[in-house]
Amino acid sequence: MNSPDTPILELRDVTKTYTVKQGLFGKSKPLTALNGISLQLNRSDVLGLVGESGCGKSTMAKILLGLEAPTSGQVLVDGKPIGGENRLELARRIQPIFQDPYSSLNPRKSIEDIIALPLRVHHIGDEASRLKKVRDILDVVGLPSRVLTNYPSQMSGGQRQRVAIARALVMRPEIVICDEPTSALDVSVQSQILNLLGELRREFNLTYLFISHDLAVVEHLATRVAVMYLGQVVEENSVEGMFVQTRHPYSKALLESVLTPEPGLGVPDTHLGMAYPNPIEPPSGCHFHPRCAAVSEICKQQAPRTQLTTYGRIKCHLHDETVQAKLVQA
Amino acid sequence: MTHSSSALPPDPLLQETLAPTPAERLRRRVAGHKGLLFGGVVLGLLTIVALFAPLIAPHDPYAQNLMGRMQPPVFLDGTWEHILGTDHLGRDYLSRLIYGARISLLIGTVAALISGTIGTILGVSAGYFGGRVDAVVTFLINVRLALPVVLVALAVVALLGGSLTVVICVLGFLLWDRFAVVMRTSTLQVRNRDYVTAAQAIGGSTPRVILSEIMPNILNNLIVVITLEMAHAILLEAVLSFLGLGVQPPTPSWGLMVAEGKNMMLFEPWLVLIPGAVLFVLVLAINLLGDGLRDVTAPEGRN
To answer: Are A209 and A41 in contact, with CB atoms under 8 Å apart?
Structure first.
């Protein structure tokens, strides 16, 4: 038996490198999508993972789902490393919810077939008990059982996302990877889905890894927040700590970029200026330095170390006391 | 009351608000597509004629009558005894046409099935697995495209001798390239959709993911290519038979009938025109059916 404080999901120094070929006769170059990621999720935590497009969020989701193997490092579920042989067991414990409910449901299958697929693949129960399970889970996600014979094209975006949630939960997993589950939905539907996810978490004691770039959503649902930049976690904190006392310049910029409905404010200036760097040739030193508002000479030369503190983790020279002390001396 | 069995009549509002199922939408589009209907009806009729040839044909297609050679068809002052006249050996032309439909449809269907199987397996694996598999399949496709079909068919038939089996096999093993190309592209389009990833994350095995998630979504493309390749195979059989390297006499084949009639073409043009016209109608019908199927199954791809 594992001790209760064993994290249900743990990433230890996970690195994923792809080989990218530029052009037909171009040289193969490594692309580091994930660079030494370490994260821990405790049972019934909601870890909000935020960052720009291309920072490695989706790669991380694929690794956690067992669809891709990390180049190095380990993923542990309940203290046990995941590998190729216990693929089905992993699938029973970790399930995904995708961003776009228009592409996550097979258009040629009825809703019943879609939701029952996990049960069929895992040979759980017979036809009748499967149908009962499907009806139960439909009720849980708030859909009437008459949609069973419908096809995805007959449903709205919000209904489809409920179907996707039902499919993810029908095997009662412990961990759900939510890959931007609301960003493809209408604003009015978003809150319904978020509330549903919150209720389901309490009801089934779920642990969420909540990938998003919508900080308002993260603040609403998450208990912890990790900010990713170019394949690295640059800051991790509890949700209160993150939103009250933001430390990393990148996290600050992200928070400032949130749009408000208040008129007259216009589009916020994030000071991020230049575009996201090419991940094949990441900037020297701290990967964030070309866009950082508080950049100093050391950031261009030396990569910051990850510091574990009482509140979480941070990867920035500004908050590294030894570095700051040296700067003061010089 | 027509709804006496149910307590409530169906709610008309509910019926209208619920969008039609994919099958229902397909049925509606089929009913509104003239080309598809024409192609389907003609092909259906020819299939019935081919299946029931012994019942329909007025004469034995092999029975010669050297006293009654090259009787004209009924519209050229012929007799109703031989509606489409007789050929250079006095065989009933209509009966030979009817039996010829068997050969054409048999060759078209079997060749398309063989090449469809080969091409689909190659194309879907290339699209799904990518990487080395894709490189090998793409190479095979390029090799195949570099081979001129008629020349290869001529060489094989010259080596093995012409017969129905040889022609079917040659065409089946030569016409898979379009299947492979189309299936590869379609698989590439579908394989990165989230429902495929979801099935993989559920723990679905690779065959299961391919057969139950990918195949149903690329089947419409496959059906369209099958019809096109059927028409292609039927025409190639006619070409080979015309050149004397396909179906051998006395088997009635439309291509062979054109070849046999060509010596008399200047004096009795109907000997060539009738089988030519039937061949034209069959290929046209199959192509219309294929085009129509593409239109109704993938309306987003229509221009």
So the answer is: yes
Minimum CA–CA partner of A173 in chain B: B202
Name the CATH topology of B27-301: MetI-like fold (1.10.3720)
As a whole number of angstroms, the distance between CA A66 and CA A14 comes to 13
Burial of residue A34 (CB within 10 Å: 0-12, 13-18, 19+) is buried
Name chain B contacts of A118, Cβ cutoff 8 Å: 202-203
Q: Quote the CA–CA distance of A106 and B279 in Å, as a whole number.
A: 41
Half-sphere exposure of A31 (CA within 13 A, CB side): 17
Q: Which two tokens stand for residue A134?
A: 């499907």
What's the N-to-C CA distance of chain B in angstroms? 46
In order of start, what are the domains of chain A with their CATH numbers? 9-260+268-329 (3.40.50.300)
Which residues from B are below 8 Å from A122, CB to CB? 202-203
Whole-number Å distance between alpha carbons of B266 and B51:
34
Tokens of A104: 């996550």
Q: What is the pTM of this model?
A: 0.80
Helix, strand or coil, per DSSP, at residue B29: helix
CA–CA gap between residue B87 and residue B72 (Å, rounded): 9
pLDDT tens digits in sequence order for chain A, 330 residues long: 455 677 888 888 888 888 877 666 667 788 888 888 888 888 888 998 888 777 888 888 888 888 888 888 888 888 788 766 677 888 888 899 998 888 889 888 889 999 999 998 888 888 889 999 999 999 888 888 888 888 888 888 889 999 999 999 998 898 999 988 888 888 888 888 888 988 999 988 899 999 887 888 888 888 888 888 888 888 888 888 777 777 788 888 887 777 666 776 666 666 666 667 777 777 777 888 777 777 777 888 778 878 777 777 888 887 777 777 777 776
Each domain of chain B, given as residue ranges in start order, spans 27-301
ipTM of the complex model: 0.82
8 Å CB contact of B198 and A92: no
Under an 8 A CB cutoff, do A67 and B202 touch? Answer: no
Strand-by-strand arrangement of the A72-77 sheet: A28-41, A9-21, A72-77, A80-81
Whole-number Å distance between alpha carbons of B286 and B242: 21
